[in-house]
Specification:
single chain; mainly alpha; 3 helices; 0% strand; elongated
Amino acid sequence: MLPYNSGGHAAFQDTFVSGFLKFYPDPFSLPKTTWDYIIQFWCLDLSLTDSIMQDCYSVFGPAPRLPFW
């Protein structure tokens, strides 16, 4: 399946915040160790991964789409 760039890292961050607040209305109740992981993934920009992996994608299969929460 071909890659789908839905807006890059900023789009990931926006989607993460909206989904995160839906499941954790009081984010300050999470322990500090959990926040350490959240911060690591918040800063991890994988926007260029699809272009690096382009040769691994097939032109066959379903059309690219956003995953649903």
